Amino acid sequence: MQVVRLTAPNDFAEWRGHARRLLAAGISPNQVDWRMLGDAGGLLDDVDAIALPPVDRPVGSVPRQFLDMAQQAICHADPARFSVLYKLLWALQSNNQMLGDATLDANSLLTKWTSAVRRDSHKMKAFVRFKSILDDSGLERYAAWFEPDHYTLEMTAPFFARRFDGMMWAIITPYRSAYWYGESLAFGPGGQKSDVPQDDAVEDDWKTYFASIFNPARLKVSMMKSEMPVKYWKNLPEAELIAPLIRNARQMESEMIERVASLPPSRHLRQQERLPEPLGTQEITTLADARTAVQDCRRCRLCEHATQAVFGEGPEHADVMFVGEQPGDQEDLAGKPFIGPAGQVLNKAVEKVGIDRSRVYVTNAVKHFKFEPRGKRRIHQSPDGGEVQACKFWLNLEQDLVRPKVIVALGATAATSLLGKTATISKLRGAPIALSNGTTLFVTNHPSYLLRIPDAEGKAREQAKFEADLILVRDAIDVLRTQH
Ligand code: URA
Question: Which of 325, 347, 416 to mutate to test the pocket of ligand 1 (most atoms within 8 A of CB)?
Answer without folding.
Answer: 325
